[in-house]
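Marked as duplicate of an earlier ticket. Keeping the data here for the record.
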Amino acid sequence: MKWLWLLMAAFALTASAADISGNWKGSAETPNGTIERTFVFKVDGHKLTGETTSNNLGKSTLEDGKVDGDEVSFSITANLGGQETKVNYKGKVADADTINFKVEIPSFTQSLDLTAKRVKQ
């Protein structure tokens, strides 16, 4: 019986969502230079909401945001070259202050790696 309680406690810890609420700043290297983006994340259970801003795409609202353990995912709609397109973010929390994202733009069949760091207040 004791093992059952330990197993249940371990499962509860791994199933809980990472606390990524707050301000983050990310950057990615591209052939055209560095892209920078800020994020404001709000976590409620497993639901992720917030917004993101970049120097070249402006402000976007997070859509379909989820946090499951250390896995993070959301989409934004951005205006790329006058065309509305969906941008998908899938990430993994590396530590309390770092998230490593794979950013995919399905309509352009492109992806890039973006590392976000928590902004200390």
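See parent ticket for discussion. The chain has one domain: 17-118.
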